[in-house]
Amino acid sequence: GLDSFAKGLVAAGVELLASGGTAAALSRQNIPVKGVEEFAGLSELLGGRVKTLHPKLHAGILARRDDPEHVKAVGEAGLIDLVVVNLYPFEETISKPGVSADQAIEEIDIGGVALIRGAAKNFAGVAIVCKPEQYAEVLAAVQQGKGSVPVELTRKLAVAAFALTSGYDAAIHAYLEKADAPTVDAASSHAALPQSATVSLRKRQQLRYGENPHQAGAWYLASPAEPGLSTLKQLQGKELSYNNFLDMDAALRAVLECREPAAALVKHASLCGLAQAKALESAYAQAFACDPESAFGGIVALNRPLTGTLANQLAETFLEVILAPAIEADALEILSKKKNLRVVAIDWPALPSGHEWRQLLGGWLAQDRDRIMEAEQSPKVVSKRPPTAAESADLRFAWLAVKHAKSNAIVLAKGQATVGIGQGQPSRVGSVRIAIEKAADRAKGSVAASDAFFPFPDGVEALAKAGVTAVIHPGGSLRDAEVIAAADAAKLAMVLTGARHFRH
């Protein structure tokens, strides 16, 4: 849209200056333009690295219009009242696969950022335009003001400009810090956390409200964008809500870790069911069966494309959101009958790594993401009876699932599906009771996972009484010997992982 913007400015009596390729592009459109080389009396240097870094240009931008000495020093012909800059596409470049560090560094804009900051600082007399979507509003103001732009608009433009440059610098900082950071902190054997961090966010969408109607809410994307929900495409249904995003995030995290076709159901950010099977339809049916009552009004995440067959199953229950890597045409046609149902597709991300942040009142916390650790690859059997092959497979699945339930968490699983989940209780034995109650008769022959150690034997004793046959947990309690003795007394198999999975 630069050509139409430039034509409109010329028609309003504005004289245009441009550098390099921009000047050439405008000339090809027969738009009168003077090159900055002619204006400033300079030629490009260093293969184009230096084009606009010249005192005459910056003086014309930075001169205070209310200071006679400034105006005299620059000269009337040298004042620049409007600056239009689009920065080198650094973020787009680093998002491409196989980009080298040298290629990334060449896309760090210097002159453009300097022009933007100078014009934004002097917004009392200069308008800074740094986004194509601003062209229409600015052109209209120039036309109505007969060459001038009201300060209310130039101030708004300056705010947008500083937001742009701060985000641009944040993306560069994050890229270089990630490239230079050691992978392990020698003092702790953990991935190194940054000494400083800059967060850059841009609003993607205003939401109807936040968690409650009296709270405002909006959806923001990180800059540079991270994979996952940033690629979301809503195919039908009501506007996504703040709570929908929290639930989608929780469900997506769960199914991302499943290698087989899998389905997760989440309600109020709490896991209601998780299952994996050879067929996605079976996985969903088993996940739903874990807690049908809680699944009502929940959201479903799938790690395989949604088919028409499964869409018919999903349509039988009131759901808020369905999320999948793709939605087949016949599935979308079936679900279209439910006008309010939100159907969402995303570009499927890899299992996330790196750090995650949480805001506190007056601060932030950062931590490594909870990835499957090496210590968990060789769990230790501590009971007299080792688990059977079937129990071992279900214990591995239960250990994966308990990671996505809120601590204190207990998950009962059978046949690669959760059958009972107890979570979010201040007492671990309280979560045990809830998981058993949810599972009912399905607790018999199931296995159990606990996200942290059992502080007393009572939890294991309750699981054994309900018919659970094997248990996996981190271990590490002062009463581990008593807990193991309770398992042996009930002929349970018990496995310790040496690592816990709290999720507060």
What's a quick, concise take on this entry?
The chain has 504 residues and is an alpha/beta fold. The protein has 19 helices and 20 strands.
Structure report:
By secondary structure, the protein is an alpha/beta fold. The protein is 38% helix and 17% strand. It has 19 helices and 20 strands. It has helices at residues 2-11, 20-28, 36-40, 55-62, 68-74, 90-94, 101-106, 111-121, 135-144, 151-180, 242-256, 280-290, 292-295, 308-314, 329-335, 389-402, 428-439, 458-466, 480-489; strands spanning 17-18, 34-35, 82-84, 127-129, 201-207, 217-222, 233-236, 262-267, 270-276, 299-302, 321-324, 342-345, 355-360, 363-368, 380-381, 410-413, 418-422, 447-450, 470-473, 493-496. Strands 7-12-11-10-8-9 form a six-stranded mixed sheet, sandwiched between helices. A hairpin with a 4-residue loop joins strand 16 (410-413) and strand 17. The longest helix has 30 residues, at 151-180.
